[in-house]
Amino acid sequence: MGVSEQRLIQRLVPTLLRLRQTNFYRVIQRTLMLTFPFILIGTFSQIIQLTVLTKSGFFASVFHLAKWVPYYKYLHYPFDNLTNLTLDSVSIVAAYGAAKYAAKLQNRDEQLAGLTGAIALLLMAYQYTNQAQVGVFNALMLGTNGLTGALLVGGVTGLCFKWFGKAGDEPRSPHTAEILSRTFGSLLPMLITLLVALVVSLGLHWVVMATYSEENWTAFQKFATTSHSLWLTFGMAALTLFLEIIGLFGPYQQQLVANAPAMNTNLSYALSHHSAYNVPFPYTANTLYHAFGTFGGTGMLLALVIAIFINSNNHNYHVVARWGLLPALFNSNGPILTGLPVLYNPIYLIPFMVAPLVNMGIAAVAVALKWIPAVVYPVPIGTPGPLIAFIGTNGNLVAFLLGIVCLAVSVVIYLPFLHLAEAIADAAQAELAREGGPRHVEKS
Amino acid sequence: MWKNPNWPRRLRSLIVLVLGMVFLGLLIGPSYHWTQANVTAMTGRHDSQLSPIIMIPGSSASQNRFDTLVKQLNKADKRRHSLIKLTVKTDDKITMSGSLRPRDNEPVIVVGFENNKDGYDNIKKQARWFSLAFKQLAAKYQFNNFKAIGHSNGGLIYTYFFEHYFNRSDITVKRIMTIGSPYNFSEENLSHKTQMLADFIKYRENLPKNATVYSVAGTENYDTDGLVPARSVEAGKYVYQGQVKHYTEITVTGNNAQHSDLPQNKQIVALIRQYMLNKPTKRTRNRAIIGANAGTP
């Protein structure tokens, strides 16, 4: 590293700085910031719900909580609620934020734009049924998986306000008359946004009905999780990682169902032969990707957290990393994804994809050379990343050490990109200082 | 690296990091114990050769309903199947009598209910009670497969149980036999589906895909066993056919083909021996050789 790395960074900084200062990128960054606290609260609630209050969760299994904690059966309800209403509605916040910031840049009524964006997203997520049912919103569109869609909706809402609304600063002394005229000025863009949302919603509905997209998706996911060829496993993992960093979910994202045939075959082989070496399908999503490529959630973000701890000078990074460590230990990457942010961040695209793939490669070699048995035994939900391989091999110490090695390798992969991100943050700060009297100090 | 680090801030973060690592380190021990215990338990179940026959009697019958059947089976089979009886009370409490004889790999287990009344609502309740009994049995006897026999409403309880409660990946049901089970209650006309039949059809996808199912009907004349219409038993095909591995309908006539006599009917006892019991010869001859894999194909 050293000098050459520094030079490379110096070269890249101006380009990336310009990208960062585009309106487009600003809106995304500020919106992610807005969702961050919701995601943080939701993530903590989700961790408690999954690891402590779910029977098959990590703490619940390891400490047999269901057996001795009174009223254990009922304890998860409040946490279910909190998790659902924070994490699973994050996209509404994002649509609000994106529309608000986009409108603000154009000097339009930001509050109305934001609310319109949120409602437009809800309109699109509404599911038409012929029965009177409750809970008819498509959860996929409102949760963290719908973030990209929400940003789009917000952005388009902002555009509508730009094209059809009237510019005007917020009235200094809020007289009713002025507010009223401002509100009426926003009526046209609001109406157009909502009408467009309705049309899109009907179109989406028609597409879903016509193509059974959900079934196709499930079939695809099934295909992905049951594949057992080495190259397919790596390809699917790469696809997952890419989709995740652009805010969509990948084929491995959903927690792997326990009865994937290859997994069952492996398990039953291992049980019959009292050994997990030589199982029929050693290279599956489960044995490689989940066991060695997801420490700290998708993208090995636990490695990024550690990289920040040992080698960052940016105050904000440290704060986010400290808050994000506990979730990352339990493979929840939401806070780091949105807090730094890593999402939509071209700087982190390379390590985000490379680190897990390299780890999978290391693991595949180790399995092929019989250094470790395949990871075939059941692992509780929310098991900390470095312990997954350990538990999944029935306590094989080499597997545990290999997990630590993988983590260290990932930290090394993330370090140069962290330096680049810091250099850009510093350059942005310096530029603001040069211009003097910044209107808003950009969050970095 | 190339700048002066801000030491106090970094120290605080490093403390957090060390705390995190210590926390993780403390979990290694418990994790190790858990996975060892878990794998041992799974191996135990996997290696188990036990393959019980679990029976559910029909409405108004108790856990003693199959005593004669088991006697006849033992006599014909020249084996003594242990007979274990469970009763689930209305408050979910379970009483158990009988015990597993040593070296008996095919015990008969009968699960009766304190509330053994007829009707769809009761069947739903009984299915839940059965699921409790099943859970207890699975924990106590560590079997990895079983055979299911339900007489009359017992077959309906089984159907509801398989569709709504049975989702264990470590236990399979190999064969299911329902004897005179009225899938459409007393409705003779198949175009009039009862609520229960409609529900059975609605959730049929949850039925175990690898089970072989036999539906046995008895008839005194051409269309009834005196209580249950043959067409109602026949309606089982709308539930099982195409959903399980094999679905076979068998109709028994002649002596003792009246609904309540069916479990003692010689023909049906023979059918149970032929289709439901494991073949004894294979087991005795190879007992010492067959290792962990008995029971799984």
UniProtKB/TrEMBL annotation, chain A:
It is a multi-pass membrane protein. GO terms for molecular function: protein-N(PI)-phosphohistidine-sugar phosphotransferase activity. PROSITE patterns: PTS_EIIC_TYPE_3 (PS51105). Residues 8-417 form the PTS EIIC type-3 domain. The keyword Transport applies. One of its GO terms (cellular component) is plasma membrane. GO terms for biological process: N,N'-diacetylchitobiose import; phosphoenolpyruvate-dependent sugar phosphotransferase system. It is found in: Cell membrane. Pfam families: PTS_EIIC (PF02378). It comes from the Bacteria. Keywords: Cell membrane, Membrane, Sugar transport, Transmembrane, Transmembrane helix, Transport. The chain crosses the membrane at residues 27-48, 82-99, 140-164, 184-208, 228-249, 288-310, 347-367, 374-391, 397-417. InterPro entries: PTS_EIIC, PTS_EIIC_3, PTS_IIC_cello, PTS_Sugar-EIIC/EIIB. The phosphoenolpyruvate-dependent sugar phosphotransferase system (PTS), a major carbohydrate active -transport system, catalyzes the phosphorylation of incoming sugar substrates concomitant with their translocation across the cell membrane. PANTHER family: PTHR33989, PTS SYSTEM N,N'-DIACETYLCHITOBIOSE-SPECIFIC EIIC COMPONENT. This is Permease IIC component. It comes from Lactiplantibacillus garii. The lineage of its organism: Bacteria, Bacillati, Bacillota, Bacilli, Lactobacillales.
TrEMBL record, chain B:
GO terms for molecular function: hydrolase activity. Keywords: Hydrolase, Membrane, Transmembrane, Transmembrane helix. It comes from the Bacteria. This is Alpha/beta hydrolase. The chain crosses the membrane at residues 12-34. InterPro entries: AB_hydrolase_fold, DUF915_hydro-like. It comes from Lactiplantibacillus garii. Pfam families: DUF915 (PF06028).
